[in-house]
Amino acid sequence: MTIENEKALITREAPPRRTKPPQRRRRPTDYLFTGARAQLFKEAIEDYPDARRDDLALMRKYLDPQPGEHVLGFGEGSGYFCRAIAEAVGPTGKYIITEPSPELFCNVPQEVLDLPHVFTEITAVEDIEFPEASFDKAWACGAFHHCPNQTEAISRIFRALKPGGTMVLFDVFQGTPLARHFDASVARYCVTGHEAKFMSEEFAHTLCFLAGFDESKVRIEEVPHRFCFDSEWDMGTFIYKMHAMIRPPGTPEEQIARTLTSLKEHLAVERQGETCVLHFDQKALIATK
Length: 289
Ligand SMILES: C[S@@+](CC[C@H](N)C(=O)[O-])C[C@H]1O[C@@H](n2cnc3c(N)ncnc32)[C@H](O)[C@@H]1O
Hints:
10 strands, 11 helices, three-stranded antiparallel sheet, 289 residues, single chain, binds S-adenosylmethionine, alpha/beta, seven-stranded mixed sheet, Rossmann fold
């Protein structure tokens, strides 16, 4: 190519800038927890109100919500922890419940929603826009693996925390029996499938580092979640509903039986006296700003 030709290339006018296509904000229906998935999740919690009793104790132990604190919860549509957190922070505190699925949000008890210190917002965690340094604590259980942009999500949580504030995320981690249960069974049989981003411990630390957390104030702990039932059949029914394992054809009984078989394949099930215990161990990512 001659020098003239090269110059011509360099000085050639840039093509007119193409305008960016309008960014579509995700609709709540883009999320998994709609239709049968939301309905069956709700039924699982209503039909077996004691199955997750240990979860409340674990939330109190790790999140430890105190009177007067400002707490942000995300992916809280099932409503399971909402009453306990609202009562713990009390009228001098503030509790903001966020959830992307309006259908699941319906499960937050009305008496909790009516409390003057409880506020709600339909949003995914990666879209939260709270003023900087608003919260003492941020929290979620089993929601973070659904978040498509985890880097953005942790950055926004970090920004929303006050200095000294703490983020507590209970979630499924890579390489655990629970991750195998979700990947081998839930992803296969759940009516919506289960595309999920389970963190490795390394990635969790990296996310916190990128968001601005001091790494000496980040830790990951095993959380011994247990679900408790009167019988194995109840256990199978609860998980069948909680994970909406209705994708392949069959009667509900056949679908519950299949759920039970795959549960026993991937997770520990044991009898403790009269109680049938399913070990559903997550890990806690705890980071202080
Ligand atoms: C397995 S459920 C757990 C619900 C509740 N935390 C509990 O423990 O019962 C997962 C939750 O994460 C929510 N979720 C899905 N994508 C999300 C996102 N991007 N940001 C926040 N929450 C999300 C779902 O709508 C659902 O409420």
